Sequence to fold (396 residues):
Amino acid sequence: MACREYSERLDVFEDYLDGRLPAEAAAAVTAHFERCAACREEVESARLAGMLLRAGLEPTEAPSGVFWTRVRARLREEEEKQMVADFWPALEVLARRFMLTSAAALVLMFAVLLGTEPKEPMEVREIFPESVRQPADRNEVLLSLASNGNGR
Amino acid sequence: MSHVPKAREESGPPKRAPGTEAVAGAPGEAGANAAGTTGEVPARSTRGLPQAKERELILRAQSGETAAYEELLHAHQQRVFAVVGGILRRREDVEDVVQQVFIKVYVSIRQFDLRSTFSTWLYKIAVNECYDYLRKKRVRRLVYEADMSEEQVRQLEAFDSGMGAAPPADASQRAEMRQLVGRLLDELQQEDRDMLVLKEVEGLSVEEISGALGINVNTVKVRMFRARGRLVDIYRKRLRERRR
Fold:
């Protein structure tokens, strides 16, 4: 762009074309065009570009009647997909919880078992503390009877 | 896979889609908000719906109410068609892509941050979906023949003399003109031609284009002005070549 005054202010020209400049700023731009042919021609070219585009292309038309029917069908598909997609992760979470619970129960069982100290085998003396020693022979039996007074 | 502009999760920190900051304070919206505070005219969203109504519909849609989602998108559908149509310019593709945009909105509406502008978020999804579609299909938006027809040359000349500003009345002449303009546009960079078509043909504001493309408002203005100049340069060059 040849003009130094506006070479860094092309946004002002765009606003000017768009009719968005406040009246005072627009008047300043118009006054500038009177003394700067380069800017005037540039803005006229820019205006021509808009005219060319509008003459060649038409705005996109409103959607056809069946558009929303199609969207609704797609939404249903999407919801079904979502349900399937949600089902497996949910099942996975359940399975993981079940496995974790089972593992925890097993660990607990082992801990209880390990925590209980097994009792040592009892001595016969402890079971029958007053058990009588068996006599060794016949004489000893007779002696024992005699000493208990049973032999009378 | 196309992208859904990220917005704030309900409990998370604000995450705006690129470009929304520029649009949040756009003059159009500021004007709308200001109008709302006077009590004379209810504040309106960028297009159509009053802000309070739009907010209510978004909240209901976010809680899974399909009727609210439909009402919300009904209010915006014409603009979404304009964005997609402006970028793709192939009528047969537009409806499919808009459909895809609407599904994406349905799936991701919970991610939308109510402090952002809904239309910006929506247009950004539409733009992403268009570029994604073009990438996947690997199509040029329109394929033109190498040379201009006699009718196109006549139309260019009419334009050059200031006589062709109005669209041609005849359907075949319109088709020729469409092809001609499309060919000129194809010599511009993609974003530049999208800006021009969205502004001049589809009627989007600079702020809407800025939000949809994620480009600063001032940059959009400068690039658009330069793109206009380039378009006319190409047009005059073609005309000179034909006249030789």
Observations:
- Residues 27 and 116 of chain A are 99 Å apart (CA to CA).
- Chain A has two domains: 10-56, 66-147.
- Residues 66-147 of chain A form one domain.
- The first helix of chain A runs from residue 10 to 18.
